[in-house]
Amino acid sequence: MSQPVDSGREQLARAARRHSTATVLYHHAVAERLGLGPSDHKCLDLLLQHGELTGSRLARMTGLTTGAVTGVVARLEAAGFLHRRPDPADGRRQLLRPVPERVEEVAAVFAEDGPDLDRLTAGMTREQVDAVLTFLSRATDELAACASRLRARALLVGAARASSRAPTHPERAEEDA
Amino acid sequence: MSQPVDSGREQLARAARRHSTATVLYHHAVAERLGLGPSDHKCLDLLLQHGELTGSRLARMTGLTTGAVTGVVARLEAAGFLHRRPDPADGRRQLLRPVPERVEEVAAVFAEDGPDLDRLTAGMTREQVDAVLTFLSRATDELAACASRLRARALLVGAARASSRAPTHPERAEEDA
DNA sequence: TCGATATCGCTTAGGAGATGAGCGAGTATA
DNA sequence: TATACTCGCTCATCTCCTAAGCGATATCGA
């Protein structure tokens, strides 16, 4: 292996890649455990992190069409994970928020069959944990930005193919995640 | 907020959760960019990390049925991402391996629209980067183990429902990922 | 103030992809 | 050698996503 710096970077790239794959597989397994599809779980996750969202916002964040989101919301509501109410400020909108009791069940799955954070940081100093925290936070922002870039580019290609005529499709990806 | 320790743990949990969601969304966006479905991308990822796998192993690792894997392999092969050859040691098996040239295209997508690792670790000492590396590595193992546990449990439930008669379904999840 | 345009969530038709079951071929075990 | 298992594949079926378009509401411009 070349210099320690390059070796370290490659090591990190590999580790991040493997971690990424493991995360995706785990996320899918959790969804199945909850009796949800991957998209449903994704949306529920976003809902838990944001507290309250509209359907269109959810569509923009996930890259799903509004039609797909309608299905997701219907399933999540039927399963009792989600409560919806009309937006008092905008008659077109629905405000979606997770249902606390059901959310606790989700949290229970994570507690029972999720990674043990204490074990992950065992033997680390506060400074080292902070470094991990910084890395995760930066990576989250980067990933969200990259995903939005990728989706925006895909839309441009799609728009070029269909030329003008904007469909129901999300007009532009959202950097927020 | 309570004690700094608890606060730190919760902070880490939240960061990990957000990072996880962002990862899943990014993974999906990359798949679309490559013209692949999420499962296809997942399998390709595993193939890239392991070099060569059999179909049944892929099914066990992803939790997909063998029927689904047949479709995944057919699509990946048609798209030129994958080469397959019969296992000389076992006439039933097919050995699947990624095609180098196409893999470079995938790598190009990551390079162009992937997170910049240097920026993520900017300002960190070697020791801090090592901490991140340790965390990622441990988390990867934990996630793989948890996913396999979840899937194994789901299979038990399924087996209890269908009682005996094992289907084509993956008999047990694999810890390896 | 009022018409034009956008956005919201929903619906529908159609298709892609996953499941679940079962098959023949090949391998391991008794 | 006979039996049980594993491999990858096929088929019918189902679920979920896309693409397109609709009515209702909101916003902007003249």
Automatic annotation (TrEMBL), chains A, B:
Species assigned in the record: Geodermatophilus obscurus
Record-given protein name: DNA-binding transcriptional regulator, MarR family
Gene Ontology biological process terms in this record: response to stress
Domain HTH marR-type: 9-141
Top-level taxon of origin: Bacteria
The keyword DNA-binding is assigned to this record: yes
PROSITE patterns cross-referenced by the UniProt entry: HTH_MARR_2
GO MF annotation terms: DNA binding; DNA-binding transcription factor activity
InterPro entries (alphabetical): HTH_MarR-typ, MarR/SlyA-like, WH-like_DNA-bd_sf, WH_DNA-bd_sf
One Pfam family linked to the record: MarR_2
Keywords per UniProt: DNA-binding
